[in-house]
Amino acid sequence: MATLATYFRDTNVRRRGDAVAAAWEKSGEQADPFMLRPLPNDGIYFYSKRIDNARLERQADPEARGECWSAVGAAGVLLLLGASIIAPHVGSVLAGYKIEALKQEQQSLLDQKRALEVKEAGLLSPGRLNDLARVRSLASPGAQQVIHLDAPSLDGNFARNQVPAAPAQPQVSAR
What is this structure's pTM? Predict the structure, then answer.
């Protein structure tokens, strides 16, 4: 192998630069010391032909349609799978929002209830009721108007503030 390296020496290869230098020497002029060495493959010219494929028509691939539909089907299955994985999480987030809205509504209803209880207590206060009775010329009931109900004698219907009337006797008609 070492003999091949010595076989291809620079002295055996003729270069373009050497040819130019020899031509200048023949002409009597001195070679330009600032002339660059030739680039590798400088003498090779590559011809590129313009290719126009505008008139070509692509042949239909019968398998391409099936592959396209199988890709669409696979994408649909992946979409359904992804939606079924994400749906419970989205549902729990929406339920959380609804629970928080219901908690806020409960709090506002409790505040309204407290306000109504305070207003009711003010309306039912004994001082206010006495003032209303005086304005409307109402008097406290007398002792004969008050009926105290005893627990064992309650019949469970309702409390009466009038003396019960005697029960009516059925009339018997003669025929």
Answer: 0.39
